[in-house]
Specification:
Rossmann fold; 3-stranded parallel β-sheet; globular; alpha/beta
């Protein structure tokens, strides 16, 4: 698992296999361990749009990562004999651990877009932009955030300057 400098993690389990949910919990514990977050110390917070998710604190430090727990194969939920992990089980675990929780279907696409939109709402974009601006200012560069433009009509090729 690669997560160095990650702003988020999406941990997916199969709602039709209880063992998959157990493994997802183990991966979340691994994330907590590697990031130095005691289990249950993420808090559910509300962003300016009012959506709930993991963006809380551990002590006085800022929450380092947004973790989304996703129960997949929602298309099979109607087949009651196929579901092994109840919605409430995933939701309760996510609330206890301070995670964003969704059930989705990769097959039908149900809730996939909504899950990514919710995840994006919790990413610390402004914090990262402000950190970059402060670092640039400390290095003697303009600390102002502005729009960079790229000339799409510029010639490129061998010896041409990079446009990015």
């Amino acid at each position: 698992m690669y997560y160095r400098n990650a702003n988020c993690a999406i941990v997916v389990y199969d709602i039709t296999q209880a063992g998959s949910f157990d493994r997802a919990q183990a991966w979340i514990q691994e994330l907590h361990t590697q990031l130095g977050i005691p289990s249950g110390h993420l808090t559910i917070a509300r962003n300016s749009a009012g959506a709930s998710g993991a963006s809380g604190t551990t002590g006085s430090a800022k929450q380092p990562i947004v973790i989304v727990l996703v129960g997949n194969k929602l298309d099979l939920a109607e087949l009651s004999d196929r579901r092994e992990v109840a919605y409430e089980t995933g939701e309760e675990y996510a609330q206890r651990e301070g995670l964003v929780f969704w059930e989705t279907s990769a097959k039908t696409g149900e809730n996939v877009h909504e899950m990514f939109v919710e995840l994006a709402k919790h990413l610390p974009v402004e914090d990262k932009l402000n950190e970059a601006a402060a670092a640039a200012a400390a290095a003697g560069k303009s600390g102002k955030r502005g729009n960079r433009t790229i000339d799409l009509n510029a010639k490129s090729g061998i010896g041409a300057a990079c446009q990015c």
